[in-house]
């Protein structure tokens, strides 16, 4: 018994080496992640069935009490095959389910039945039956990624016991069956259960390796995608491509990296740059296929790369489409000296990078679209306000020239300053507070001249303003709102106070009037940022730009005053002096 146990463990060692190699194959991973399909189930059943056949061939034969150690090619009628085929069949069922287990067991069982000898029928039955039962057991543990070695050790006890029972049931009168069962029973139980436990432990190690590789690839992809963001924001494709190619080549230490559009190479960094050059046309079929299908492609041979140079050192490539607005706009190509250099971790990293950069480009495009919409709204605001405002001001100037030419000239200059600022309104997201004050002062002078008998506008500001930045045309719409809405029913003694006051960490800018104030419903709506669409070119537009360019803390605040009228204010952090370049 001791000798038989040692021989079985020796043969199992060889099979476990084969199993270790099997776990490294790409097809095996679909079993680990339970990616089942009929085609793959048939393939896995065939592979594990061959594994069972190999276990039988490397097993041993019993001729009475004599152990025959040679490989098993033929079996005499009085000989019994003792093999570890049940190990392969149990693993097939545990990993692939009943179909794979039964299929693999049928192949191994048919081979044992064909060999013949004592217990051929029992061997032929126990293998498919074990595969089926192991597959059903796997369904019981379906919530586990892989069965733990301790559970596998326990499960591995039953197939050899079932095997011994079938031998005794099917061959009850055979001479020496009981003696043979007594001799091989314990060695088979020990060797099979321990081998199955080792196999499941091996699978657990493979899973952890793959998860570690995936985690490393995801971390590296996120890091590179973050570093690539400044290049993705470039307006010129060549600048963007050159920056991305340099970054990927440096960080991933690839043989070469290319970035291409749908028609030409935009940048190439690394070896073979003497004939892989920016400006070359895209001629490879696999690149066009990647652009068409928007799926990553892998070229494992030089013929797929289709380089015209016979001495080109690049032998393989991963081609990654970057998708923007549901269209593949450009490709990133990882080049390798040998196809063997393309490991699973490189494939995972490439796939992750393609997805991250695609999302980043779509985010950048959405931000640009929002910016263009904001600019369009501002231009629309100018188009709506300027003609009416300009007509009334020009009419005022023409009247003043008859009464007070000096005053008329001053208002003309202020109108020019006001219009000049408006024409440059969307050229920069931020302007100096000093310039914004000059714009407001010009507007106040014009309005004060038009409505001198109805209202007085007072502008209070420090003599010296630091270089703090503010979104353009932010204060003037608040003054205009007070004139057109707050004081619309006021015919005399109207008052508007515009104040810029320094606080500890901010500049507080407020506009106060003694007009009708806000209705309760409108005040609540504005505080909850639910102003009607019709007013979006007014206070709501100002509020949105303050939030987008400065932050939530800068949003407009509204309140009605006890003595009548209302106040609108916002605060600009003093840190806006440092943030100007960052935002623009």
3D architecture notes:
The chain is of the alpha+beta class and 584 residues long. The chain has three domains: 2-212, Arp2/3 complex 21 kDa subunit ARPC3, CATH 1.10.1760; 233-367, 2-Layer Sandwich (Beta-Lactamase); 385-583, Heat Shock Protein 90 (2-Layer Sandwich). Helices cover 59% and strands 14% of the residues. It is built from 18 helices and 15 strands. The chain has helices spanning 2-23, 26-32, 38-57, 85-115, 120-140, 149-155, 158-170, 177-232, 237-252, 285-293, 302-305, 344-403, 405-423, 433-450, 475-486, 520-527, 539-549, 576-583, and strands spanning 60-63, 66-68, 80-82, 256-261, 265-270, 297-299, 316-324, 327-336, 431-432, 455-460, 469-470, 494-502, 506-513, 557-560, 566-573. The strands form four sheets. It has a five-stranded antiparallel beta sheet with strand order 5-4-8-7-6, sandwiched between helices. β1 and β2 (66-68) form a beta hairpin. α3 (38-57) packs across α4 (85-115). The chain is elongated, with a radius of gyration of 40 Å. The termini are far apart. Mean pLDDT is 80; it is low at 530-537 and 580-584.
What are the salient characteristics of this protein?
single chain; 584 residues; alpha+beta; Arp2/3 complex 21 kDa subunit ARPC3; Beta-Lactamase; Heat Shock Protein 90; five-stranded antiparallel sheet; five-stranded mixed sheet; 59% helix; 14% strand; elongated; disordered C terminus
Q: What portion of the residues fall into strands of 2 or more residues?
A: 5-15%
Largest sheet: 5 strands, antiparallel
Mean pLDDT score: 80
CATH topology of the largest domain: Arp2/3 complex 21 kDa subunit ARPC3
> How many helical elements?
18
Tell me the name of the CATH class of the largest domain.
Mainly Alpha
CATH architecture of the largest domain: Orthogonal Bundle
**Unreliable spans:** 530-537, 580-584
The secondary structure category is alpha+beta
Determine Rg (CA atoms, Å): 40 Å
- Spatial sequence of strands, sheet with the most strands: 5-4-8-7-6
Distance from N terminus to C terminus (CA atoms, Å) equals 83 Å
Shape: elongated
């Amino acid at each position: 018994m001791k000798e038989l146990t040692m021989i079985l463990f020796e043969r199992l060692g060889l099979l476990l080496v084969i199993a270790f190699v099997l776990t490294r194959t790409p097809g095996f991973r679909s079993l680990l992640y339970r990616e089942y399909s009929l085609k793959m189930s048939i393939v896995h059943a065939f592979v594990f069935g061959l594994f069972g056949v190999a276990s039988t061939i490397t097993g041993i034969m019993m001729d009475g009490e004599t152990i025959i150690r040679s490989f098993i090619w033929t079996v005499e009628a009085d000989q019994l095959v003792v093999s570890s085929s049940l190990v392969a069949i149990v693993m097939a069922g545990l990993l692939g389910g009943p179909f794979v287990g039964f299929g693999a067991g049928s192949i191994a069982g048919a081979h044992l039945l064909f060999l013949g000898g004592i217990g051929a029928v029992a061997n032929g039955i126990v293998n498919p039956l074990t595969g089926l039962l192991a597959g059903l057991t796997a369904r019981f543990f379906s919530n586990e990624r892989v069965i733990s070695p301790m559970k596998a050790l326990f499960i591995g006890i039953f197939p050899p016991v079932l095997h011994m029972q079938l031998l005794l049931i099917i061959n009850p009168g055979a001479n020496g069956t009981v003696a043979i069962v007594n001799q091989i029973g314990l060695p088979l139980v020990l060797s099979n259960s321990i081998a199955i436990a080792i196999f499941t432990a091996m699978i657990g190690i493979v899973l952890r390796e793959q998860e570690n590789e995936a985690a490393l690839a995801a971390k590296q992809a996120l890091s590179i995608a973050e570093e690539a963001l400044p290049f993705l924001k470039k307006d010129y494709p060549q600048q963007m491509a050159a920056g991305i190619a340099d970054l990927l080549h440096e960080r991933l230490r690839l043989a070469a990296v290319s970035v291409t559009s749908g028609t030409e190479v935009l940048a190439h960094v690394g070896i073979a740059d003497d004939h892989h050059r920016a400006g070359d046309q895209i001629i490879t079929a696999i690149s066009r296929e990647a652009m068409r299908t928007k799926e990553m492609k892998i070229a494992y041979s030089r013929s797929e790369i289709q380089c015209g140079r016979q001495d080109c050192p690049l032998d393989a490539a991963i081609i990654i489409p970057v998708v923007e607005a549901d269209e593949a706009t450009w490709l990133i190509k990882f080049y390798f000296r040998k196809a063997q250099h393309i490991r699973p971790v490189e494939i995972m990293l490439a796939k992750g990078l393609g997805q991250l950069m695609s999302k980043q480009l779509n985010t950048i495009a959405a931000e640009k679209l929002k910016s263009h919409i904001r600019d369009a709204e501002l231009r629309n605001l100018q188009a709506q306000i300027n003609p009416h405002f300009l007509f009334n001001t020009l009419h005022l100037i023409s009247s003043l020239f008859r009464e007070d030419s000096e005053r008329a000239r001053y208002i003309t200059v202020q109108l020019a300053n006001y219009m000049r600022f408006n024409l440059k309104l969307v050229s920069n997201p931020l302007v100096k507070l000093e310039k914004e004050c000059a714009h407001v002062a010009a507007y106040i002078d014009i309005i004060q001249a038009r409505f001198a008998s109805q209202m007085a506008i007072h502008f209070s500001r420090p003599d010296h303003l630091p270089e703090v930045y503010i979104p353009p045309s932010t204060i003037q719409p608040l003054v205009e709102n007070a004139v057109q809405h707050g004081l619309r029913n006021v015919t005399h003694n109207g008052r508007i106070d515009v104040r810029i006051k320094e606080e500890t960490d901010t500049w507080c800018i407020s506009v106060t009037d003694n007009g009708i104030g806000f209705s309760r419903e409108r005040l609540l709506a504005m505080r909850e940022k639910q102003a009607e669409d019709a007013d979006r070119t007014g206070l709501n537009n100002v509020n949105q730009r303050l939030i987008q360019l400065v932050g939530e803390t800068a949003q407009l605040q509204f309140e009605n005053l006890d003595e009548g009228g209302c106040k609108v204010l916002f605060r600009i952090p003093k840190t806006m002096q440092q943030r100007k370049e960052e935002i623009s």
